[in-house]
Amino acid sequence: MKKALVLGASGGMGYALVKELAGRGIETVAFARTKEKLDKLFGGMENVRIASGNVYVLKDIIEAGEGTDVIFHTVNIPYPEWRTGHPTIMKNVLAAASALKAKFAFVDNIYAYGRGNGQEITEEYPKRPHTKKGKIRLELERMVREAHKRGVPALIAHFPDFYGPHAPNTVLNYTLESMLSGKKAMFVGRQDVKREYIFTPDGAKALVELAMREEAYGQNWNIPGCTVISGKEIVAIVRELTGFRGKVGTVSKGMITLIGLFNKAMWEVREMMYLMEEPVVLSGNKYETHIGPLPKTPYEEGIRQTLNCMKGD
Predict the structure, then answer these.
(1) Which pLDDT value is given to residue 184?
(2) How many CB atoms are closer than 10 A to CB 144?
(3) Top-level class of domain 3-164+197-226+280-297
């Protein structure tokens, strides 16, 4: 891989991917809608070219991706826009990959797996999503598989919830920011339930390794976090790092439902709250068997780096 295009470069995983690719000496195009944000994140970074554009406009993607070997699709949009937005974006991105004769790597989540079974989920686990958003993600996966059959080398990587530097729109970031500010802090979901989160630089390393291997295409890959961890354990780590001594409340499904009566975006969060009580935990056995050891930054270190980024260190 000599050149890569990262769509959604201003998001958490997009930012980590740009840094990982550029750090390996790969010419990287950082693509997002807002040029000012891209300049702030990547201005002056070696091996990075900034391209502002709209993923809803096929021409913008093709122009930004000229000469690209791999397109990384990390774009996310607000929940209320998912039903029509995500399929439209995917259609454009796959069309661009075809036109550019580029490979395609899709950053996916765990929604299509539906409910877990209390064990680590492998790539062979039946996908029976019971939520609207899970069914949308499964439809996107179908689109990727069809494109691969038509000649676009494509791979799908499933990740748990993100956290890390410059990953503001994440569930865990909400807690970290509120505790760092010293104000009223809240944790989304039950604090006694152990679930997993992936440190975005770890996810980026794992995905770039996949994207550089011909044999990885045409397949799905699970990229788990370091291990499972409870909300109480996370809060304890953040207290130690920040000196926060206030109470950390819990955002329950009931609270989300109540707020959702007046806020469409929060109403869309409601159906995904099952993941806070019945976590889907990914198995990384396939990756470690075929690719090698997964990057696994301990939560203490990952949270420390994330907090330092928030403080501007």
Answers:
(1) 86
(2) 25
(3) alpha beta
Beta strand pairing call for 228-230 and 194-199: antiparallel
Which residue from 223, 222, 207 is spatially nearest to 296, judged by alpha carbons?
A: 223
Model confidence at 260: pLDDT above 70: no
At 205 the pLDDT is 98
pLDDT above 70 for 265: no
Handedness of CA 207, 210, 212, 216 (dihedral sign): negative
**247 contacts 260 by C-beta, under 8 angstroms:** no
Q: How far apart are CA 27 and CA 2, in angstroms?
A: 6
Residue 304 parent element (H or E): helix 299-311
What are the boundaries of each domain within the chain? 3-164+197-226+280-297, 171-193+229-277
8 A C-beta contact, residue 295 and residue 205: yes
SS3 content of the chain, % helix, strand, coil (to 5): 45, 20, 35
Question: For 162-214, how does the pLDDT look when each residue is reduced to its tens digit (9 = 90+)?
Answer: 999 999 888 899 899 999 988 889 898 999 999 999 999 999 999 999 999 99
Q: With bands split at pLDDT 50, 70 and 90, how would you rate the model's confidence at 313?
A: low
